[in-house]
Recover the amino acids of this structure.
């Protein structure tokens, strides 16, 4: 049918996506906080926050990934089963 560039079974791919998403969200959040509260940019505090968030999210993904994967396989089976009637009325 079509080729899948990102395998849904690859834990590394999911980990990389969560790291990139965390990085983007934290950067946007930090910029918004700097603008709203008129904070100065502190690079060391910012890097510390990002590293802690990335490690925490990676640990959560490692723990919860098997459950999410099983749920995804179950939902895929439900939605892709054949629902074609073979008899005509």
């Amino acid at each position: 049918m079509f080729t899948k560039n990102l395998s849904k079974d690859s834990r590394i791919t999911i980990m990389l996506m969560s790291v990139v998403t965390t990085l983007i969200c934290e950067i946007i959040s930090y910029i918004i906080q700097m603008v709203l509260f008129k904070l100065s940019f502190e690079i060391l505090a910012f890097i510390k926050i990002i590293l802690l968030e990335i490690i925490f999210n990676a640990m959560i993904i490692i723990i919860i990934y098997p459950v999410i994967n099983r749920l995804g396989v179950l939902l895929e089976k439900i939605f892709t089963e054949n629902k074609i009637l073979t008899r005509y009325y």
